[in-house]
Amino acid sequence: MDEQRLAAYLQLIQALLECPNGANDILNANRELVDANFVQVMEAEAEKMAAEGNSNVSWLQSLAAYLANYISSTATSDEYLSFFLEVLQATMESGGNPQVVYSILGQNFDKLDLNLAQVLQAWATSKFTEVTSEQAAYIAAVIAQFGNLIQQFPLGRRAWNLEICIACYTAALEVRTRKDYPEDWAMTQNNLAAAYSDRIEGVRAANIELAIACYTAALEVYKCENYPEDWAMTQNNLGNAYSKRIAGVRAGNIELAIARYTAALKVRTRENSPEYWAMTQNNLGEAYRNRIAGVMAENIEEAISCFRLALEIRTPTAFPLDCLQSGRNLGNTAFTAGFWDIALEGFEKAIQAVEKSRSWATSDDIRQQILAESIDVYEKAIQACVNSNQLEKAIEYCDRSRAQRLVDLMHSNDLYASSEIPPAVQKYLQEFEAKQREIDAEVEQLRKPSEGNKELADVGSQSRSRADLSAYTEKIQDLEREKQQIWEKIRSLDPVLAGQVQVDPMQFAAMQQLIDNSQTAILCFYTTDDDTHVFVIYKDKAPQIHTCQGEGWGNFQNWIFESWLSPYLQDRKIRQQGMGEFLSQLSQRLKVDELIGNYLEGIEELIVIPHLYLHQIPLAALPIEPPQPRAGTGAPPLRRVFLGDKFLIRYVPSCRILEYCNQRPTIESPKYGIVENATDDLYFTPFECEQIAEIVTKPERLKGSQEATVAAYRNLAQNVNVIHSSHHAVSRLDNPLESRLFLGDGSITLGELMTPGWRLPQLSDVFMSCCETNLGGTEITDNLLSLGTGFLCAGARSVVSTLWAVDDFATSLFSIFYYHYRREGLSRPEALRRAQVRLRTISGAELKQLYQPQIDPLLQRIIGDLKSKLAVVQKKKQKLKLRQTSYHKETDEFNKLGAQLKKITKRENQIQKQKKGYESLKENIYTLSNPFDDLSYWSGFICQGLH
Is residue 523 classed as helix, strand or coil in its secondary structure? Predict the structure, then answer.
């Protein structure tokens, strides 16, 4: 399976997960990809999802099983036999070299199924009768060796690989009898037992009984006095089988397991076999942890003792995967018993092992997978700290668990900031940029389409982007896949990924140093399975914790997705109408008023570290209880009060990332750059940028599509300290690295911003007056990959970005207000807050006084353009109607034209609605009390990074 096809499989799986109700249509549209390999990739992805706690795993597993029943190899029996003999020959000639054999298996996935198991066993039975006993023994040995290889084969369908493996061992035992080849017989029995123990096909209870029978048979030959190591190995394996046993009495089975492990330890001593000794100690610990007989407290003590012994050998550096297993076991055992310090002893070892394994991985994806599969360890460590009131340590674990991909990128990118890019990296960067130009050319064909091809064409944009859940076309998707492969090559040469540089965990005292004064606090959110914690970090006193009980991952984070992010992706209008109610409920669920009253007295600024879907929430817009007027005073009802009215608020992905921003030197007397209306289709952007140009000092400006090119933008970014970007942008939730800023001749993607080619150490501020620049998917590892975090990685100290598709008019006013306040010397979060308040409270009369000469012509132009667009659409609609009358009803041609008419009528209605909206705005805007009071206008802007 080549990388391109694997990527196609993964893309198809993503499409199915995003639209489960349309699975049949999606599969039918991609029939060429639906094969046995696809099912195997689905099963592998389902295993990853299960490890990450993804709720869609059952659905994907069911679909994979359903497809597997209908996908079978078209190979004939002769082709199966030919393939088996080829593999057998390769196994024999290579001495069982996995690299040689796996290469052949990888090219014949379609034959790795139950048919092969039947063919090989039938062939072996027949062959053994045709050859001499010596030849039969040799063939049996090679078949058994192939059984070992297929059992460990990492690809293909695991269930079928095991059936083939069982067939190999069963066939070998026809020759390897106890009488003639006792050692080989015992070894094969042991291997067959291991296969039965892992078996997926058949009944689980029966499979384990078969495994026990095989292990017991092996012990007839493996006596302690003659084969001590093999005897101890089989005793350990038999202990594992009894631990898993379903038949019989559970308590008795565990006692049998303990007896077997204890026996194995007579041979497996720390002095003679330290690794195997530690393994068996770990297994014995699990048995005592699950023990039913005896006194529970004593069993727990025994289990803890065994796990501790195992960890003496299984250290994070020497055996990180084993250390993770035993550390997790020790932590979980002590956690359940309420022994918090012992639990932390185990979890700390496990976390060290995770971080060591992660530092050895040379791929971003593998690093992410390692962390995702172990996130439960961090979560329980944090909860154990909370339970034992070790809040400083809990906060340290929070920071160690989150945004590590961004931390890697920022750490390595800062290394490149003042040095030359290596030639090998430069070569890949050139390939990356060339591939991006190919994608831009394809997108340009959609943005400026020929008649009848208007996927991206639009009229007078009310917002500055459109959200994307997938690539626009299959060709673009293929190009993105090729570009991703180049990006991975660039990352493979990164000094952090190469293990040349490591990032040490951040200590709590260093986090406190990031706080400027005693009026500022850090709010660190963290959701566990059961609750959501808000850790409050102060400048000069001990941290506090605010816990929202019952607001765990499933109950709370899934609610945010279903009630906030999902509606935005499906129907923004509905989401907009429900924003106030949702934010009110969120404020109640987070008990924000209680948080303020108990822990934020005297605090004026909040540095917020969200967790998971909280990254997408405008926390400044959370309603809070206003101070009530005294009874009998006759005072009028107080206006709505939001969290942002009481506190300055800025966001950071983690304390470590804030530290990177903090370490970047301050820029005095900054130079400004403005990039405006790069695609010539935003009406209010020129007005916005003209006003800003009068506020800031001598900005360098790139106006319109002719000037605002990719090369010009890059040059500007390298030569100014502050960039104001006012144009289209889009977030790609399916592939965050393809989120992009649209420019005159192409685009700049998040992936580019995160390469060494975009090192901007002199860049102080980025203001993205664009849509969705901080909208990004958050994985279980809490990496927010957005255009906003991309500029932080590139070198910016602070970024102003947006959480959704913002209104063009409102955004222009907000941007102008922000720069006015910055000129007055206000900090970034203060300027942002003041601009938000100004936007939501400005009256129509004030707008008229300030900007009527600029606003009226713009509104008139928009209405005129919409009238022209409407006329074109209506003319086309009439032509289609006329053509349709020339065909009989029920004909394909009539129905085809009917579908086109339906589509164009929908477009006509959209333009009509837009036109009426702008006509109403033009007529009424100056009479409205607060035209931009709605949450959707003002609350979507956030500030990230420094004060």
Answer: strand
